[in-house]
Amino acid sequence: MDEVSGMQPMKIASLPHIRMLYNGEIYNYKKVQEEYGFEYQTESDGEAIIHLYNKFGMAHAAAMLDGVFACCLLDLKAGKVFISRDTYGVKPVFRLLKKDGFLAVCSEGKGLVGLLQNNGSIEHVEPCLPGYYEEYDIAKTGKVTQVLHRQFHSLENLPMWRNIVQNCHPNKDDEVYSNIRLLFTEAVKRLLANRRMGCLLSGGLDSSLTAALVVSLARETGIKYPIQTFTIGMEDSPDAMAAKKVAEHLGTEHHEVLFSPEEGLAVLEDVIKCLETYDTATIHGSVALYLLSRYIKERTDTVVLFAGEGSDELAQGYSYFHKAPSPQEGDADSRRLLKSISFFDVVRADRSTSAHGLELRMPFLDHYFTSYYLSLPAELRAPQNGIEKYLIRKSFDEKNLIPDEVLWRPKEIFSDGIASAKTSWYDVLKESIELKVTENMMQEAPYRFPFNTPTTKEGYYYRQIFETYYPGQSRWIPHFWMSKWNNDQ
Q1: pTM for this entry
Q2: In angstroms, rounded to a whole number, what is the distance separating the alpha carbons of residues 151 and 243?
Q3: Whose CA, among 78, 239, 306, 328, lies 20 to 30 Å from 358?
Q4: What would the mean pLDDT of 413-440 be, rounded to a whole number?
Q5: Are 408 and 386 in contact (CB under 8 A)?
């Protein structure tokens, strides 16, 4: 192993019986080192996991990690294997456990599908659940048996690693607003990187607030280079126009990328293969992000990207929340979306960027921020005065971080916001697929695809492509993304 870079499988000289495969970013690895006096032997942030496991065991180790991660740890002395994944499942990890005790683990499902045997046995490649760790025993024969599957953190609970903000005890509305600002600002600050940073900017509330704080904090910390912002859309798209206003307000080095319907259609199959999904709503919004990530990789030196993902789920940003029968039911659906985000928005965001060697950071999914936000009364978090995400907007009102017309801009569905004023991206997809899927094929859909049966030609087309690469693995997503009270996606 390269003891400087921490090449994998990771092994360190002081704990030679432990091996680890790891994908992600641990933001508090230096604080963990200071707290417990660990002697790191590499420059890899993932080394913190090995030391925490050795001192406390896997449950405590995983709970102490502020970051996004998926790891598989082998303890040769104990004869154990552990697999764990971060709370929101930002980083993927799949496993295949065969009846003969053979265990295989990979960060992508495609790495395991080839190990399946078509001999009539029922074996599945399965995604590991976010916020859980799994424990396996290794027999002397080499056979592996799962002995434990346990949650180490839930999105409602304060994280065990919290050691940043101590005076966050709201009693009045004004204190709620100040605490939201404080916690979200701290979340962005902790995610600042030593490598070149940029921001995905749609011109909506979430990405604009995130970009504004990145720019402000970068100046405070003495970063000299200009922060780059990136927007993609078809000609005259609403997102591109709004993002330009924000970029001018923030003084960023702005990149506006236009794509044609032909360019979008050309990468559609690559996107489905990359994301390992057939969910229609997820694929809609992923094509543009995939193209934008390719542009950033090829044309710039930005490596770390900030984005506003997670806010719509956390703060009830989708327009259908206006139709929630009560604040309590809106709260319940917000939690439903957060608990399943690893199958949808997080897949779109993480896979589309990481496919091009980029690292995405999402402060709205910070564990401390989300647990605090969800602890507030449901009435406060519901849409107010006909405005979704009112609490977030009000918290940053009159702070001049972003233009008021952007701070109070209504939510745009990403696939709608990138569309041309003349041409809808949805219509482009629909027209392209219309002749590729026949009515007879749709009638046979319940028999060919009994699980998550596609109900539209577009959905059928995506499912065909998915099954080409990942036959029999439709349960990688438990259900389609869907709104609760109408058909808004």
Answers
A1: 0.93
A2: 39
A3: 239
A4: 75
A5: no
